[in-house]
Each structure stands twice: as structure tokens, then as C-alpha cells.
Design a protein that fits this description.
Its cofactor is Mg(2+); Mn(2+). By secondary structure, this protein is an alpha+beta fold. It has 14 helices and 25 strands. The chain has a domain of 114 residues. Helix content is 19%, strand content 21%. Strand 9, helix 5 and strand 10 form a beta-alpha-beta unit. The longest helix is centred in the middle third of the chain and has 23 residues. It starts with 16 loop residues before the first strand and ends with a strand.
């Protein structure tokens, strides 16, 4: 992995080059807390310029109508955003298309012709005061609604209730699909049925677009590992040692056999469906009917290992690069000769995922570009969320003003504080004693401090101090003793258990993060209760 520059990630110089970027930001607000985005004043325009990108898709926006005024109008870009009809602050996707200068060779090619929310065509958009379904109006919908695998309208509406997809048609005859596919993290039967129906409908729409003569860019968090090589956990379960594989000592037939089992596993039908969509699947009988190519894998090659795009934050597996690759940019396979560059950007922080980009020459696309008439795109965020003439926040009651807290407080008497919600409604008052604890120190003076449980945090035993009720300062090393040595020969770190069986109990563990057991840079698994 290479260090990412503070300014921009430049592409190879070429006038007709278009850059695609996809990024699961895991909350567009918190994303701006990380370098270098923390220096961008919550400006998406600066983010898009940083990536030097033209077609950008974000997943897991976790935003709501109140905040769309900030993300829904980006100077120099078309903006299309879908948020859940249920589960506020959950899911949500966005697609932004750069409006290129008139003298740019791709200016006409990137003009937006139509845009649609969802995968079913059953959602509505407001036109002349009426709500019109996309599939009922050819000037609104992208088409391809026939034979999509599910006919029950209630099931289809449920699939589109979580803000998981945006589709945009460009003048160059290309359809951009931004998706945040469901994962069924709870491993429930209901969740798996929802997931399979979503994938089935979406993949059938993509095939229908191809039959219509459209080119497709399918981008986002697909939540499916297409191949065994894309999952560190599955490689470990298959007993494939990456170091041996990388040096060629693992027999290729063994790896290929395990990879086929991985894709055809009857318990994971979503992997088979994805590989059936790919013309570069490693299983020929699946590839025969494929229509898309995995652009990142095509550019980087089949032999590149550990090309992961998401890591487990609870287990801190990112430092050892023990993750999986589920963030993809899939393009119509006939475009593979136009691919110039593409990679993951694993050093870009801001999320448990990392961005993925693909650079493509639009030479061949320019011949398919048709003249377009300027028209109102009803799904464009500025129209859908009424951002044209005023700030959407003005429709809601102003926040009530509260007096600032004094710099010093007399805590000898009872003190209460109240918080204010967005619409100015006061929440119930709470005693300040519920937020702070008061301890006595030398001289009988009272000291106000915030409790620190240190749960899940690394504690430096040599510098961390605590204060006893008598005011005597001691280091945690004095309390818990000298750290034991792990199997690497390094001093262990102290952590606190969060399990229901041993809540709050402290233990020693290896300071390295979890990863491939065969990797010396991963945790050795040392564990000892204090």
C-alpha cells in the first residue's frame, strides 16, 4: 500500500479519461472527522476534487432529510440521493456526476438523461403535483422492468424501502448503478430471503439493460465476495496459506478446487449469482453467460493478494490487512479494452471500507453519445428534496437558545442541565451527577472528573495515572503489575472484557491486531486474565 497524498489523487493525463470512484463512507458526517477530509469543511466538492473523480457513488450515507440540504447540492455536479423510507439514519446511497466544461471532449457524454430511485420502478417522483411511478412514464423510468424475477408488488416495494439504489442514465448510452446491497448480517431466514430477492431483481434489471443495448457501470458495496481470494477468513478456513500461495508452493489445482467450492457452495447462492453475471468468472460455465467484468481485478491481475476493501473494526484487523473485498466497480465486458487504470485506495481512512476507483477512456463512448434536450430531472436532489429556493431547515422550528454553561461550577449544590432536540423540544432534565463523578483529593477540595472505563482501549501502563480517594497518584502498572510477554516476545496490552459472562474484567493480550495466523504481523493469540 502506498501513502495517499494530502491534496489530490491524480489520474494519468488523458483528455477523454473518466474516473469512477465508489466508497462506502459508513456515515457521511463521521467521514469528515478523518484526515484529509477533516480539512475540507464538510464540502463534498472538495472531496470529489481530491479524488479527481467524475462519477462518484457513496454508500451508507446514514443521513436524513434535514441534512440533505448539505449533501444534495454540490456545485458543478448532478446530485442523486436515496434515503430509507424506514429506519432513519440507516443505509442511504448517493450518486454524483460531474458537469464537465463545454470544451471538454466528454462534456456531452456525461450529461444526465434520466435518473431513477430504487431497483423496481415502483417508487414515485413528483411531477406537476402528482406522484408518478417510474415504470409508468417512459420519460422518467430507465426501462427493463420485464421478467425481473419477482412479481409481488409489496415485496418489490419492501426491497426499495431502505434507500439502497440509485440509477442514472447518461447521454453516452451508459447506465450508472450505485448500490448498497443487503448483507443479512443477522443470518436470519427473513434477511436471506430479502437479500436474494434484492439481488435477483437487480441482476435481472442489469441483464435487461444490456438487452436494450445499454452499457452498464455497476458500482458500490455489493456485500458479496466474488472469489475465494477476496476473503481472508475463507482462505484461512480453506487452509490456504497466503505466503505459500504467493511463492507458488501451494498447488494451483488445490487452490482452484477450493475456489470453485467457495463459489458453488449451496449455502451461499449469492456468490453463484454474482459469478453468473461476470464474464471473467474463474468457472467457465458461469462466465459463458456473463455480461460484466470486475474492473479492479482485471487491471490488477488474478495473482494480487490481500486486495481487501473492508475490515472488521471491532477486531481491529485493518493494520494487518485481514479483510475482504466487497466494494466493486463492474463494467460491461466490451469496455475492458478501454480500461486504463484502477485500484483500491487502502490508505484512505474515514470508514471501515476504503474507496475503489477505475479510470476509463471514453473514446468509444463518444460515438454513442446522442444530443440531449435540457429538461428537469425530477429525481435530482434539488428537486426531490425541494432545495431550489430555500434551505430545507427553514421548514422546521428554530432551535431554542440556551444560555452557555459557566466556565466554573459550584458543585456543592444540586446542578441540572437540559438538552435541546433539533426542533426545539426540551428533553427531560438530568442531574449533572449522572454524567460526572465527584471525588475528594488532598486539601478536602472537590474535583470534577469524567469516568473512563478504558473499555476496548489500549492502556499505556507507564503514563496513565489514577487518583485514589486519599489523593495518592499511582500508575496502572502499580495496580496490575508488569505486563506479561506474548508469543512474539513483546509486552502485552491491557484490555477490558465486554462479554456478558465477564463484563468489566481485565485481561492481557497480544498488542498486534487479529489477522492471518501464519502472518508474523498478526496477533499470536496470547490471552491471560489479570
Amino acid at each position: 500500500m502506498t501513502n495517499i497524498p494530502d491534496r489530490t489523487i491524480k489520474r494519468k493525463a488523458k483528455n477523454d479519461l473518466i474516473r469512477f470512484v465508489s466508497f462506502n463512507v459508513n456515515g457521511v458526517r463521521t467521514f469528515f472527522h478523518y484526515h484529509p477530509f477533516s480539512q475540507m469543511k464538510s464540502s463534498l466538492r472538495e472531496v470529489f476534487d481530491y479524488f479527481d473523480s467524475d462519477i462518484i457513488t457513496f454508500q451508507e450515507l446514514k443521513t436524513d432529510k434535514l441534512a440533505i440540504s448539505k449533501w444534495g447540492k454540490v456545485n458543478g455536479f448532478y446530485s442523486f440521493i436515496s434515503i430509507p423510507k424506514v429506519k432513519k439514519g440507516y443505509s442511504g446511497v448517493g450518486c454524483w456526476i460531474r458537469i464537465l466544461p463545454d470544451n471538454h471532449p466528454c462534456h456531452s457524454a456525461l450529461k444526465v438523461v434520466k435518473a431513477e430511485e430504487g431497483i423496481t420502478g415502483l417508487l414515485t417522483v413528483k411531477v406537476n403535483g402528482q406522484q408518478i411511478r417510474y415504470r409508468d412514464d417512459e420519460s422518467l423510468g430507465l426501462g427493463g422492468y420485464e421478467d425481473i424475477g419477482v412479481s409481488d408488488e409489496q415485496i418489490l416495494l419492501d426491497l426499495d424501502s431502505e434507500g439502497r439504489c440509485v440509477m442514472v442514465e447518461l447521454a453516452c448510452n451508459m447506465i450508472i448503478i450505485c448500490v448498497y446491497s443487503p448483507a443479512n448480517s443477522g443470518l436470519t431466514e427473513e434477511g436471506e430471503l430479502f437479500r436474494m430477492n434484492f439481488i435477483k431483481v437487480l441482476f435481472n434489471r442489469i441483464r435487461n439493460f444490456t438487452k436494450m443495448g445499454k452499457k452498464v457501470a455497476f458500482m458500490g458495496d455489493i456485500n458479496i465476495c466474488r472469489d475465494l481470494i477476496d476473503s481472508a477468513d475463507c482462505l484461512s478456513l480453506a487452509n490456504i496459506n497466503l505466503q505459500e500461495y504467493n511463492t507458488g508452493t501451494v498447488v494451483e489445482e488445490k487452490y482452484h478446487s477450493e475456489a470453485v467450492k467457495f463459489i458453488l457452495n449451496p449455502e451461499t447462492p449469492h456468490r453463484r449469482l454474482l459469478n453468473q453475471l461476470l464474464s471473467d468468472s474463474i468457472i467457465p460455465e458461469l462466465a459463458d453467460d456473463g455480461i460484466l467484468i470486475d474492473s479492479t481485478r482485471y487491471i490488477q491481475g488474478r495473482d494480487r493478494l490481500k486486495m481487501y476493501t473492508v475490515w472488521n473494526t471491532l477486531k481491529n484487523t485493518r493494520p494487518s490487512n485481514y479483510g475482504s473485498r466487497i466494494d466493486l466497480i463492474l463494467l460491461t465486458d466490451t469496455l475492458k479494452t478501454d480500461l486504463v487504470d484502477g485500484d483500491i485506495l487502502a490508505d484512505v481512512m474515514g470508514s471501515d471500507h476504503c474507496p475503489v476507483y477505475t479510470d476509463m477512456s471514453f473514446d468509444s463512448m463518444l460515438t454513442d453519445t446522442k444530443p440531449t434536450n435540457s429538461k428537469t430531472l425530477r429525481f435530482e436532489a434539488r428537486y426531490k428534496y425541494n432545495l431550489m429556493n430555500h434551505d430545507i431547515l427553514s421548514m422546521f422550528a428554530k432551535r431554542s437558545k440556551t444560555a452557555p454553561l459557566p466556565k466554573t461550577m459550584d458543585i456543592s449544590s444540586t446542578t441540572t442541565a437540559s438538552s435541546t432536540t433539533r426542533n426545539g423540544m426540551a428533553k427531560r432534565e438530568k442531574s449533572i451527577d449522572t454524567f460526572f463523578k465527584i471525588t475528594k483529593v488532598q486539601g478536602s477540595k472537590q474535583k470534577l472528573s469524567i469516568p473512563d472505563t478504558h473499555q476496548g482501549k489500549q492502556i499505556n501502563l507507564h503514563t496513565t495515572k489514577i487518583t485514589t480517594s486519599q489523593g495518592e497518584a499511582k500508575s496502572l502498572k502499580d495496580i496490575f503489575g508488569k505486563p506479561p510477554v506474548c508469543n512474539h516476545g513483546d509486552a502485552c496490552i491491557l484490555k477490558t472484557s465486554r462479554t456478558s459472562d465477564n463484563p468489566g474484567k481485565k485481561f492481557w493480550t497480544c498488542q498486534k491486531s487479529r489477522g492471518d495466523p501464519n502472518d508474523p504481523n498478526s496477533s499470536c493469540g496470547f490471552f491471560k486474565w489479570v
